[in-house]
Amino acid sequence: MTRKTRCNSLLVAALALLTTQAFATSLAVEQGKELFPEQRHENIGELVTQFIQKSHYMHIAVDDELSSRVMDVFIESLDRNRMYLTVDDIELFDTYRYELDDMVKSKPLDPVYQMFELYQTRVRERLEFALTQLETEPDYQTDGTYQFDRSESPWARNAEELDDIWRRRVVNDALNLALEEEPWEKIQEVLTKRYEGFLKRLDQVNNDDVFERFMNAFAHTLDPHSSYLSPRNSEEYRIQMSLSYFGIGASLQTEDDFVKIVSIIPGGPAAIDGKLQPNDRITGVAQGPEGEMEDVIGWRLDDVVDLIRGPADSVVRLEIIPANALPGSPKKIIGLTRDQVKLEEQAAKSEIITIPRDGREWSIGVIDVPSFYRDYRALSNGDKNYTSTTKDVKRLIAELEEEGVDGLIIDLRGNGGGHLTEATALSGLFIDNGPVVQLRNSNGRISRLDDPDPVARVAYNGPLAVLVDRFSASASEIFAAAIQDYARGVIVGQQTFGKGTVQNLYSLDQYLRAEDDNGFGQLTLTIGKYYRVTGESTQHRGVDPDIALPSGIDAELVGESVRDSALPWDTVQTTRFRRGKPLDSTIESLTANYTQRSKDDPNFQYQMEIIRAAEEMRSQKTVSLNIDERRAERERDLEQRLKRENDRRTALNLALIESLDDLDEDELPDVQLDQAAGIVTDLATMREIAAGQEQTAQVKP
User: Fold this and answer.
1) Among 27-31, 130-134, 354-358, 663-667, where is mean pLDDT lowest?
2) Residue 380: how many CB atoms within 10 A of its CB?
3) Does one domain contain both 63 and 173?
4) In whole angstroms, what is the distance from residue 398 CA to residue 403 CA?
5) Looking at the structure, do residues 125 and 152 belong to the same domain, yes or no?
6) Is 485 a catalytic residue?
7) Which of 371, 474, 476, 624 is catalytic?
8) Domain, as residue range, for 424
9) What is the mean pLDDT of residues 21-36?
10) Residue 348 maps to which CATH number?
11) Three-state secondary-structure class, residue 486
């Protein structure tokens, strides 16, 4: 029996369940808009299928196997935390498990919309149940717990199990506000507005929204960076890429009921302020210094974006739950002044760190490179003074050498990439000439990108370290890999992100004729992969540091390898290049010195304690529903944080603080940078000793 025959048998067996589906459709008509696929959606599906089969790097077949994986991604996109659907609902979805490939190719998409309407019905049922729970104040003295992470839990067997889950959720939502000393009347008002807002936004879903969600399930099954954007979101993307709006300079996405910070855009208000971090969750938005905080939990992403945007130089305040905090942890308020992302703020910057060692002070230059940028508009206009990463770094190196630095750090932490031409050009400042990266396209053809200015002299040949973390991606990985492969310097920090793929954007309006003004949206498709000169891919594995430094970024939560559909690591043939003298013994000595120093470094031990506390917090999947226990947990957390800080201050002979409110975050140590400076000082010392030995050998008779 083929999969499709088996699927058709399941369809017959599921007739009883289809009454539920019919109920979902009728309720959708009654409560909101009737959702249905339009002819242009089916045209888009056929076109996207052709692109996938012809142009995607992996030439993935759109067949039953892919259909099954798409179903899993589609279900996860609807109910990742398993708070709405039941076992019976999933069984109904499964009747279409091996049909999705046929739907996207040529068959009607009606079942996709019917599945979504069933999901919509279940969400409405849960929210209406939640509203009934607000009729009386919850008991905050129970011994119960709330499991906030249900992503790996079994699906609820029936509505009664979901009732219990949601009863606990409502108590937890109320308790979170009660911990902020809000009275019940206020809590009732906030949660009623929140749940009713869920319902309102549920009824605002349109045909394009459903189609985009389904097509993204298809695209994300191919790999994490392929995606489909509806016409409305294509325009939103265009606005963001033009940087012509005033906002905070952060990429956002929805996850469960929260809008989450994905990345901070270099040169934007959030990057300049420095307090907002990737994976922070936004719970509220307020306008101006005194405006009322508006609860945005459960909001559509575009609605939250509209709130955050505003006139230039105006203030927006964000209420956030920090990335590593448990639900219900104390929230932070961050005020940001809206502005455009500024190219000059993206520019590389330098500083000098002084390291006392062996009776002298060593000067270590640091160049912070937040992105790989190039002002193509100025370049196309013939302006020879156009701004670029490579030109700025070359100038900063010259300035630092005039100051007499003993070594150099290129800081790529948080650098998510940028222009490939800048990654190869920047590499050329540190290697004589030769290949920097290889690119393999979907046809298997391999091209090589070399140092674009091979006749230019190396800008710097002294002791060098490249500092990276898990958010160093794409172009950052190409540069770090080149420095490592040529043995030009040491890579220190954390394993990088592992984004070694190339994407192309297709505007579907160019391929389909519009019969109305709605448009067709755009498709982003992975068409190639990057490879190091050694032949190893940067995809999935990223660049492993020569010397690993502790980081607060959890590599099990962030990075390409975390994503189920990430393309695999592989290799191509090594290209010819002149490798430098191996650094194995040097790295071994550097590691031993760093390890010994870190044992006696109070700042290093302070960071290790913070990392351990964050790991312990992340391991929790449940929270108590007893307000006394939760208050005690908060107090313990604050006491531990205060103790860690004062232990550090005691060891450094600094004045103690009485409260964390007295802590100036600008005074906190940058432990990774300090350790990297120590490592470069070791490199400079080794080089000076080697130079002295060589000079001694030359003068011997």
Assistant:
1) 27-31
2) 9
3) yes
4) 9
5) yes
6) yes
7) 474
8) 344-582
9) 53
10) 3.90.226.10
11) coil
